[in-house]
Known about the structure:
Layout: E1 9-15, H1 25-31, E2 36-41, H2 51-56, E3 65-69, H3 73-86, E4 99-105, H4 111-123, E5 145-148, E6 153-156, H5 169-177, H6 183-186, H7 188-201, H8 206-211, H9 220-231, E7 234-241, E8 244-251, H10 253-265
Parallel strand pairs: 1-2, 1-4, 2-3, 4-6
Antiparallel strand pairs: 5-6, 7-8
Amino acid sequence: QYLLPHQRTVTLLSSAHIPLSGRNPMLQEALGIRPHILVLNKMDLADPRRQPVSTGAGLAPGHRAAVTALLCVSLQIVPLVAKLVGNSPRYHRAESTEYSILVIGVPNVGKSSLINSLRRLHLKKGKATAVGGEPGITKAVLTRIQVCEKPLMYLVDTPGVLPPKLGDVETGMKLALCGAIRDHLVGEDIMADYLLYALNKRQQFGYVRRYGLAEACDDIELVLRRVALAQGRMQKVKVLTGTGNVNVTMLNYPAAAYEFLRDFRAGRLGRVTLD
């Protein structure tokens, strides 16, 4: 809220896996009537049959929001920002002609990657902000980062922000599956069980082919067993017997659950939209 008065427009980033659950309602309320752009990241991993519904849903009436995909963001976002700001009456009261844009969203949605992508395209320069595959890489609001020369445009990277209280458990599970919440805080076994339920509910049976199952099933233990066998996830466990300790090789179910989640996030189980 402190930064918003100093920004010409705002880029609101959400994952195409969770186009509705991936939006923080508190951030949307803070935007008010300020021009903002909704960018759906990871469109190549989302179900193409659900994209037309996802991109237009959940926008508050009267909000001046435009939706674009990250696959085309390098070409679309700069002229789109210039158009939105130029049409805003607030812009004509300002003395400076440069564009200052705040990038906001839930954790691990790709805010830093978006900034680096625009910087590479328009300035031919390397990354200016650290990125990673888990939430919490960006820990503080960074200084303005130039991403374009003509027009002169700066983006401000921010830490991911979740609402202090989630609306329901299922929303929390969707956020966790997409990496907005650290895995160990929820439990990888619980997340894997919910993921299997979500895939079956949407008739996304890519896991059947990937792990060599005979058919779809709702037994997470059976699926993780096949994952462990397919990925070679084993562990040696010491078993106390009457003749001493014996090393026994067993399936590593926690590691299998982690692999199941990784395959989903990498799109190896098919293109899935959870909302």
